[in-house]
Amino acid sequence: MIRSIAILFVSTLITTLSFAQSQDFMPKGEQIMIEENLQTMSAGTHNALSMAIPNADEKKVEHVWKQFSKDFKTRTQRDRKSGLYVSDDAKLKNISNNTVDLYAQFERGGSGTLVTLWFDLGGAYLASETHEAAYESAQQMMQDFAKAVKKSMAEDDLKVQEKALKELGKELERLAKDKEQYEKKIAEANELIREMENSIKQNEKDQEAKQQQIDAQSKVVSTAQDKVRQYN
Fold first, then answer.
1. Residues in a beta bridge with 119
2. Residue 58: which residues within 8 A CB-CB, separation 6 or more?
3. 212: pLDDT strictly greater than 60
4. How far is Cα 135 from Cα 142, in angstroms, rounded to an integer?
5. Cα–Cα distance, 95 to 139 (Å, whole number)
């Protein structure tokens, strides 16, 4: 028992350190490291496969797992007591000709999520030493799952960026409309300036004509004054 606990502790420590070193998404085509170790779950301590998916939110990974596990031709349910996602009698033809009870655990760690899977083949849990071909298939399945998670995250990011682009487009439209309003007001102002300039010119002509009238009337007044002075 002590030896098993020690192995479990060391394995968990190695997995955690490996996870902490994986801070960024793997480039397309690269493989995520998968660790084989003893892990404790609801049915005891058994051999398990673990991998760290960098920058992946736990809820996102769980959501993708629900979709991904539909290919197992079984119903995947979360056990409230253990927190494990259980797929009873899963059909994993590349791993076993018989049905498999598959247990999945998702834990938040660092900037990503640690995924641990247990494959109950019926009397034995999947292990590289005893099930070499099936183990390789299980590794590939986990790589496919990690790829599905990264694809889903990339799609989410695409939606965010598309929304940002759409908002920028709306802002550009608003700026274009503002420019139209400014140009309209400038045109109206220029028209008003032209009207005022014409009014000024007409006003100057009117003042000149009025001054001529005043000059003429001044002469009439002067003549009238002269007549009045003749009676003094």
1. 102
2. 106, 107, 108, 113
3. yes
4. 11
5. 10
DSSP result, 7-52: HHHHHHHHHHHHHHH--SPPPTTPPPPEEEEEEEETTEEEEEEEEE
Question: Once rounded to an integer, what is the mean pLDDT over residues 118-125?
Answer: 94
pLDDT digits (tens, 9 = 90+) for 59-106: 999 999 999 999 999 999 999 999 999 999 999 989 999 999 999 999
Rounded-to-integer distance, Cα 72 and Cα 232, Å: 133
Helix (H) or strand (E) holding 56: none
Token pair 């192995």: residue: 7
Task: Judge contact between 94 and 111, C-beta under 8 A.
Answer: no
DSSP string, 174-225: HHHHHHHHHHHHHHHHHHHHHHHHHHHHHHHHHHHHHHHHHHHHHHHHHHHH
Cβ distance 92 to 141 under 8 Å?
yes
Paired tokens of 92: 């994993």
Q: Nearest CA to 106 among 48, 147, 154, 65? A: 65
What's the pLDDT tens digit per position in 174-202? 999 999 999 999 999 999 999 999 999 99
